Amino acid sequence: MEKLELVDGKVNWKGETAVKHKHGGLRAALFVLVAFVFENLANLHLAVNLTTYFNGILHFQVSDAANALTNFMGTGYILSIIFAVFADTYIGRFKSILISGSIEFLGLALLSAQAHYSSLRPPPCNVFDPTSRCEKLESSDTVFLYVALYLVAAGMAGIKASIPSHGADQFDEKDPRQAKTMSSFFNGLLFALCIGGAVSLTLYVWLDDHKGWDVGFGVSAIAMFLALIVAVLGWPLYRIHVVQGSSVLLELIQVFVAAIRNRNLKLPENPLELYEIDKDKEAALEDDFLPHRDVYRFLDKAAIKTASEKPNPWKLCRVTQVENAKILLGMTPVFACTIIMTLCLAQLQTFSVQQGLTMDTTIVGSFHIPPASLPIIPVIFLIFIIPFYDQIAVPLLRKVTGHVTGITHLQRIGVGLILSSISMATAAIMEVKRKSVARDHNMLDALPVLQPLPISVFWLSFQYFIFGIADMFTYVGLLEFFYSEAPQGLKTVSTCFLWTSMALGYYLSTILVQIVNRATKHITNSGGWLAGNNINKNHLNLFYLLLALLSSVNFCVYLFVSWRYKYRSKN
Known about the structure:
The protein is mainly alpha-helical and 571 residues long.
């Protein structure tokens, strides 16, 4: 009788130890990917079209609408850290997916209700008409809006925290064949995002603009419900990560607190004198132990043993615990260098959509593309390039470089960072061209949508296209980098570094827009580079140029950071 291979640290849906060839693998991961398709189908159109809803339906100013969106997106990413800790400590990653999906479904249903019932929103009004006096949201309706909006944000956070790590749990990093398949899974996450996004950015945006926002939010809620159904269908096949029972984040905080409290103690010359539990006496997995490294030595003070005191986790930590803190500390500069890329992304989801509203959206005959659907251009390209990159380019690069992933994670991230700078420079050039058309045709006061400029909206596709390629390199590279570098106990928290980076980028966008408007308030006729509702009289081109310069400086800093970084030994 063939002996069953059990998977350490993973159980099946009945709570029994998972069996290698029965649970997990690509078959189980496909359910995770399909669920992720439906989740992106539900919410990706919100990232590009909510400014239109805030501005046109709820009567926010353009800059206020942009800030409302970036705050919403930022919250959706920053909360992922809380969900990651909660999932690892209390409920597990799979249950976190189900709970988060239910919260997102509820939020979308509430948004649909507000868009449907006229008593919950202001009466219709043309905000682009300077003579109109459009009513604002009443305070009670504003509360309703933000409760619904941030329920969606919380649900998105939980999904983003749990889906990548739960999907990666289906593979064994120590098995060379499954390690390659796991790398393909991370590329598959972006592919799933693109498949869901292709429908969301076309059909759902069209429903928002032509059938009503209540319909758009309603079909989003249905898509989210289908995501939950698919996730549950894969339950019998999953390898489910066992709840740790202790918070890894809390253990990391203990290291820093203990290092500070022990700052006056002298480090032993021999690192073996630092505190660690005995492998022979503890029933622990090999992954529970990390060797000492001679870096960030000030943190080693957290593991100095003193005979006079009883063990106190806030004054004495294991070497492995200290090494976990060192790993995260080492990844922090890389994390910091990627924040500005999301700052650039935020502009493509806000101000670039407002640009598109002023341009000719005709494709053929009477068929028009909604400006918010412009990101479909890089999405369609990525649908074809991701399989090519994963199945053809990576194996070829692997033969040349010897790296399992073709090029190193840091090289992949760097390519995306420089492309994001080029995208912003391209956006500045396109905005100069758009404004020159408005000026040459005496249409600086033209009403968006109703009086389109005689220039095709597809001129904006260049900036979207370049940034789409940057996405594939940087964001997937970051996800792989954080997951592969982190030890077993930090997998979920480390993948949330990507979402936290994006959150801070969105928040930074809000702050930068306000700073730029205040700094330029008295030197422009519009009251600031980005003030007011008429972008034909704003200076968006200068703002894009500023972002291009900031991105270039950031890339130079990243080159130094990546040169200094030493990959963690997997032995």
